[in-house]
Amino acid sequence: MTKRSAPDRSFGASLLDSGRTRFRFWAPAQERVGVEVEGQPPLPMKALGNGWFEAEGPAPAGARYRYRLADGLAVPDPASRAQADDVHGPSLVIDPGSYRWRHDDWRGRPWHETVLYELHVGTFGGFAGVQAALPALAELGVTAIELMPINDFPGTRNWGYDGVLPFAPDRSYGTPDELKALVDSAHGLGLMMFLDVVYNHFGPDGNYLSAYAPTFFRDDIATPWGTAIDFRRSEVRRYFTENAIHWLQEYRFDGLRFDAVHAISEADWLDEMAAAVRRSVEPGRHVHLVLEHDGNVADHLRRDFDAQWNDDAHHVLHSLLTGEGDGYYCDFSDEPARRLARALSEGFVYQGDPSAYRKGEARGTVSKDLPPTAFVLFLQNHDQIGNRPFGDRLADHVDAKRLEAAIALQLLCPHVPMIFMGEEDASTTPFLYFTDHAGELADAVREGRRREFAGFKGFAPGEGTSTIPDPNEPATFERSRPVPHPAHGPSRRRLYRDLLAVRQQSLVPRLPGARSRGAMAIGAAAVVAHWTLGDGSTLTIASNLGREEVEISSLPGEVLFESARGAAATVRTGRLAGATTVALLEAAS
Fold first, then answer.
1. CA separation (Å) from 375 to 27, 89, 270, 290, 413?
2. Lesser CB count within 10 Å: N end or C end of the chain?
3. Cα angle at 168 between 133 and 155, to 5 degrees?
4. How many whole angstroms separate alpha carbon 82 and alpha carbon 96?
5. What whole-number distance in Å separates Cα of residue 60 and Cα of residue 58?
6. Phi and psi of 300, rounded to 5°?
7. Torsion of CA 509, 512, 513, 518, to 10 degrees
8. Is 257 left (phi over 0), alpha (psi -120 to 50) or beta?
9. Contacts of 174 (CB under 8 A, 6+ apart)
């Protein structure tokens, strides 16, 4: 077992070998600052210029501390590695090298082997609960676990996007060493670990930065979630770059997913940060960087980012399966099969095309030159379920055969698949929006949630905004724990296991160098897509997500999978039955 030292940081508390700690704090709006370690006399901090303060004093691992501002306000460390209680309380001095890694020789896995599984740590019972679930996920065929954000948030229940202390794992999930034990166990099972990080805003409760560093934020623009962060400042850029490296080096995560980066005004920082991450990673280690970007800016994927969540592909699949055309689905509900063919062959559906949802504004950039593994394909995720009024899943709206045909398409095409917790068990448990705010903020969140859906057209009889679950009720969180469907769960899990075994055996070795050979609609809800794989073989997938059969030309290759018995034989006769997907592999000539 190996102890690891942590890279030096510009911000926060760094434990020194002598049992003393160096504290560094950026507070450009303060003339003087002190650090108060419990059990020690207050320690004045030396002004270093440009808003920086530093002090060194006795503070062993586990010591509680806060910074005292000139007006008397005591604040937690914005680079706290852990909190003693919650976001308003003292920070803890942490020894980042105390954990002894059991799988220190782990170097990760190549990106093309990735099968992501997104989960919420709280619904699994914290870090220990996720660790207990790892063997079953590895047996399923998953190769990477993606945690929704775990940075410290107020209370004990939150999606994680209200975090205010980006360097600190939330205490309600476990300790820093328990998080490291989770990552370590995953590596021992051959699983990669990914973390969702949020760099576009801070949550509304527990963020003290404006009290001592108001220039951390911009006053001329905003995000949908609050005040915009000023990435024009070098200190801000360094803060978040160091945060990315912190999770990858100190906790040995294998990859990061960057939330809603279109809300970061200085897009050049993304590439600057990604390049810094690449420089920090030791040779031979696989580390992966994945974007969520509503603007579909493909240039990032030609540099140091591996892939992007393909919301376009999700939206067209969702619209095709459910018939929904409200909100942003209106951009995908007309000619959905043609749009699905474009997603399968070129990545983004919108590549500079006008968006009706955005009143004719052009959206996206050209992506057809990128490899299929540059796109993460999902049928559901936390947003697309949880941002519905009642957190309902596809299984609530789509019959099993059509949904299973879509699952086969998702898991066997060369895009990188992502499963949302519970899908593999046909769960109909909702994933609701939940928080743990109090007082006026709790009221504002509840009423804001209901106002958001005031114009929603999909309410069933007896439903309305007043029946939307209160995010702050503990029951809302408890209802969001995934539960296998009692009737369909076992067969759905077998389907996922079988599909992922086919992917691993027949497709993954051939994915490096894979390129699309085109795709086309063959019916209102049916497509055929072809890819030339890295060894020269050809993968063909024919998928009919509608209910009626369609005509289809003869397809070459050996059958890899059929989602319904006899579907491949029917294809040989020139027909593709409704609610079926067939995958074929033709060897290189």
1. 40, 41, 18, 9, 11
2. C
3. 80
4. 11
5. 7
6. -60, -30
7. 70
8. beta
9. 126, 127, 128, 182
Residue found by looking up tokens 């992501």 in the block? 116
Which of 208, 227, 205 shows the shortest CA–CA distance to 436?
A: 205
Cα–Cα dist 355/330, whole Å:
9
Number of neighbours of residue 201 by Cβ within 10 angstroms? 23
Give the list of residues 6+ apart from residue 310 with CB closer than 8 angstroms, or none. Answer: 343, 347, 348, 375, 376, 377, 378, 415
Backbone angles phi, psi at 544, to 5 degrees: -115, 105
Q: How much is the pLDDT for 453?
A: 85
- Is residue 466 within 8 A of residue 513, CB to CB? The reply is no
The CA-based dihedral angle spanning residues 26, 27, 33, 39, taken in that order and rounded to the nearest 10 degrees? -50
How far lies 262's CA from each of 223, 235, 296, 355, 391, in Å?
A: 10, 20, 9, 17, 25
Q: Strand 144-147 relative to strand 116-119: parallel, antiparallel, unpaired? A: parallel
Count of CB atoms situated within 10 Å of the CB of 223: 16
**DSSP calls for 54-74:** EEEEE--TT-EEEEE-TTS-E
Q: Measure the CA–CA gap between 56 and 501, rounded to whole angstroms.
A: 55
Closest CA to 228 of 261, 264, 269: 264
Find, among 500, 505, 549, 552, the residue nearest to 528 by Cα.
552
Catalytic residue ranges: 259, 292
Give dist(CA 159, CA 148) in Å, integer: 7
pLDDT average, residue stretch 384-403: 96
C-beta separation of 309 from 290 below 8 A? yes
CA distances to 37, 221, 296 from 369, rounded to whole Å, are 55, 34, 14
- Residue 196 tokens read as 């969702």
In degrees and rounded to multiples of 5, residue 87 shows phi and psi of -70, -20
How far is 316 from 337, CA to CA, in rounded Å? 8
DSSP 112-144: GG--EEEE-TGGGTSHHHHHHHHHHHHHHT--E
Give the whole-angstrom CA distance, residue 485 versus residue 422.
9
Q: How far apart are CA 257 and CA 381, in angstroms?
A: 13
Cα-atom radius of gyration of the chain, to the nearest Å?
Answer: 25
pLDDT at 480 (0 to 100):
98
To the nearest whole number, what is the mean pLDDT of the chain? 96
What the block records as the tokens of 83 is: 């909190």
Q: Is the pLDDT of residue 55 over 70?
A: yes
| Token pair of 91 as six digits | 């920070």
Of the CA atoms within 13 Å of residue 416, those in its CB half-sphere come to: 23
Side chain identity, residue 405: A
Q: Express each pLDDT in 105-145 by its tens digit.
A: 999 999 999 999 999 999 999 999 999 999 999 999 999 99
